[in-house]
Specification:
single chain, alpha/beta, seven-stranded mixed β-sheet, six-stranded mixed β-sheet
């Protein structure tokens, strides 16, 4: 490796048109301000809050995203399935069983370093799919080399499961960051063996919302227990996520910083 630091920017779940607008209006300036070398964004909610379309994916790539990760909502837009098979820049959780469209790992070369991104999904309070611990460990072992930085998006509901996976992989991945809950947590830290961790990097979407949805509908759902269909709150959004500074000589993290930048669009 070159011995230079690498700056990896993670964007939290991009939620609906407000989230897309925030990315289109603010990501390139954010990349410049933070001097980011590579950008990973979770895009599974970018199309009206549920799933992602090929058009939405192409727009995110054009806005400056290098690799798009996803999660359990990836299957809600069937038109994305061919793209999951044809492009290596948009991935779905690697621990879905064989036969599911797409792949769970992608890579890009930055500053002469191979940056490997692995997407995993949790099982607590979610679908019972293959074990993210076993699959994650296998993929890390397969791709860990002297000139590689490994970054993991763990799309999971349980904070226990997220912390456990991060500690299980501590020292083998540069970062394990949580997505899915849309609420940015304040527990970012470097684990004892050098892996950056945060339970949830937050949501790139409308600030005045309930995890992206219209507050009135969400409140009524709680009051009545009627499964009303949520809709995305069309209000100004924020770009949320983390910037991880990685030592390219050993592929481990030296710093993780949260950000939340309101865009007013």
């Amino acid at each position: 490796m070159s011995g230079k630091d690498l700056q990896a920017l993670f964007l939290g779940d991009i939620c609906g048109q407000p989230g897309n607008r925030a990315v289109f209006m603010g990501l390139k300036q954010l990349i410049k301000d933070l001097r980011a070398d590579v950008v990973i964004a979770n895009g599974e909610n970018s199309s009206d809050g549920f799933g992602i379309t090929p058009e939405a994916a192409d727009a995110l790539f054009a806005a400056g995203v290098d690799i798009i990760t996803t999660g359990n909502h990836i299957w809600q837009r069937t038109e994305i399935y061919p793209m999951l098979n044809s492009t290596r820049k948009i991935i779905r959780p690697a621990n879905y069983p064989p036969g599911a469209p797409g792949r769970g790992i992608a890579s890009v070369t930055v500053k002469g370093v191979e940056v490997v991104v692995i997407n995993l999904q949790g099982r607590q309070h979610m679908s019972t799919i293959d074990c993210p611990f076993r699959i994650g460990k296998e993929l890390v072992q397969q791709h860990k080399r002297h000139n590689t930085c490994i970054l993991i998006d763990f799309h999971a509901e349980s904070t226990e499961e997220k912390e456990a996976l991060a500690l299980y992989l501590d020292g083998t991945a540069a970062a394990v960051v949580g997505t899915h809950t849309h609420i940015q947590t304040a527990d970012e830290r470097i684990l004892p063996k050098g892996t950056a961790y945060i339970t949830d990097i937050g949501m790139t979407g409308p600030v005045m919302s309930v995890i992206g949805s219209e507050p009135e509908i969400s409140i009524k759902r709680q009051l009545t227990q009627i499964p009303l269909k949520n809709s995305i709150s069309d209000t100004p959004a924020a770009l949320e996520g983390v910037l991880v500074t990685i030592q390219t000589d050993n592929g481990l993290a030296k710093k993780i910083v949260r950000f939340s930048k309101q865009m007013g669009v």
